[in-house]
Amino acid sequence: MSDENSRVVVITGGSKGIGRAVALQFGGEGAKIIIVHYDPDESAAQETLNVLAEMDVEGESHRIDVSSFEAVEALFKETISRFGRIDVLVNNAGITRDTLLLRMGEDAWDSVIRVNLKSVFNCTQAVIRSMVKQRGGRIVNISSVVGVIGNPGQSNYAASKAGIIGFSKSIAREVAGRGVTVNVVAPGFVETDMTAVLSEKVKEAFLQQIPLGRAGKPEDIAEAVYWLCSEGASYITGQIIHVNGGMYM
Question: Is residue 157 annotated as part of the catalytic site, yes or no?
Answer without folding.
Answer: yes
